[in-house]
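Teaching assistant here, posting this on the class forum so everyone can see the example we discussed in section. The complex has four components, and the goal was to see what a joint structure prediction looks like when all of them are supplied at once.
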Amino acid sequence: MEEGTLKSPGHCEVTTGQADEYGDTDPYQWDAREDCEVRQILDRVADKWSLLVIALLDRRVWRFSELRREIDGISQRMLTVTLRQLERDGLVKRTVHPVVPPRVEYELTALGRTLHTTIRSLVSWTEHHQGEIAAARADYDVREAAVRA
Amino acid sequence: MEEGTLKSPGHCEVTTGQADEYGDTDPYQWDAREDCEVRQILDRVADKWSLLVIALLDRRVWRFSELRREIDGISQRMLTVTLRQLERDGLVKRTVHPVVPPRVEYELTALGRTLHTTIRSLVSWTEHHQGEIAAARADYDVREAAVRA
DNA sequence: CAGAATCCGCATGGATACTG
DNA sequence: CAGTATCCATGCGGATTCTG
């Protein structure tokens, strides 16, 4: 598990890899710097499974195996990793019931619910425009095939 | 030559057809199926570089090397791949000026601009809550360290 | 049931060299 | 300048096994 080096918000510090000398000021603080905290958070949100998990958790409380069954294609390992990351970020609350067999339940925190609103709009956009995207892809593929021929 | 349309190497190729129309617009139908088109699009949008590129392109028209310089940490290869994907999806328009040396400019399409609105809100959320997330992480790490000890 | 731990295949993506 | 092509290291993530 990677140790996220955390600095105060706004302070940029290189996590891993070479630092190199930066120096110029960036008009848009959030974007370019890969050591920028906002980018780290975006990377977390914009990962393969997080969006799915958050969207599901918004509906109700889920048990681990329920999520596993519901999310098609996720491995047990990745579900665990994803849930831990979201829990660490304060987006998901994990509740262990001391019973046998174990019963662990997951739900969104208040913070997680605010994020869900945004995610919801992203999903909505995708739903609304999937036709246009499919058309654009088909168009692109045809044109590229023509060039290649 | 790698193609972006690669599915995850899982076994779940239920309906490998392009599924042009699922018919239903159920708000909560998008999630589970990994063959769902919405999920494929989300995977594209939610990748490491796409968000960054789209956000930059909304500002103005950019040349290739400008983007390369601006996006810290991206390799020339990944910038090319990302731009091609976005172009294929109809989100980015690529204009080649037949001059020497070559001049290629990138900008958002109308479709891309509609997505930018959503992305902008995602970035805003991140900016707004990065403090809370940092605190949650610190809290989590402390507690985990305590357990481990 | 929920997960931790382990092994490891292979896609992801960086570095380099070459081209129009 | 704006790519393409190639090689190759890294690590993501799947499969499996073991535990409380």
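For the discussion questions: The first strand of chain A starts at residue 62 and ends at 63. Residues 63-65, 68, 76-77, 80, 96, 100-104 of chain A lie near DNA strand C (CB under 10 Å from a C1'). Think about how each of these relates to the inputs above.
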